[in-house]
Amino acid sequence: QVQLVESGGGLVQPGGSLRLSCTASGIIFSINTMGWYRQAPGKERELVADIASGGSINYADSVKGRFTISRDTATVYLQMNSLKPEDTAVYYCNLRQARRGVTLGDYWGQGTQVTVSS
Predict the structure, then answer these.
(1) Cα 19–23–29 angle (5° rounding)?
(2) SS3 of 41, please?
(3) Distance (Å) of CA 45 to CA 1, 16, 84, 102
(4) What pLDDT, in 10s, does the model give residues 75-112?
(5) Residue among 14, 11, 20, 36 nearest 82 (CA)
(6) Are 51 and 22 a contacting pair, CB within 8 Å?
(7) From CA 24, how far away is CA 110, in angstroms rounded?
(8) Residue 79 host element (H or E)
(9) Which residues lie across from 3 on neighbouring strands?
(10) What average pLDDT does this structure show over 32-47?
(11) Of the candidates 7, 62, 67, 91, which lies 20 to 30 Å from 22 by C-alpha distance?
């Protein structure tokens, strides 16, 4: 019953910026975590950043100081600055819902391509 729709990917030069957006719709519990993951060719999927409904945030070491995650009622954002070629990947939005320590749902967007190249 949850759908995630992503937008904002594209082709940018090194040092440039992009802003990704992901809007969630459907039945969403008040306590949840939304985040961004990415997968580059030849690499495993990795967490980029996530943000809980209570406000706690996690970043991958590789993006600290360059990326900023934020959210409002229905949308999570990822502001990406000082982009590097190694940031090139498909970026996936994620929503994870839990009650009393038990994960009840784990949902994914279909991905948006980010390419950083000169």
Answers:
(1) 130
(2) coil
(3) 24, 23, 18, 23
(4) 999 999 999 999 999 999 999 998 888 888 999 999 99
(5) 14
(6) no
(7) 12
(8) strand 75-80
(9) 25
(10) 96
(11) 62
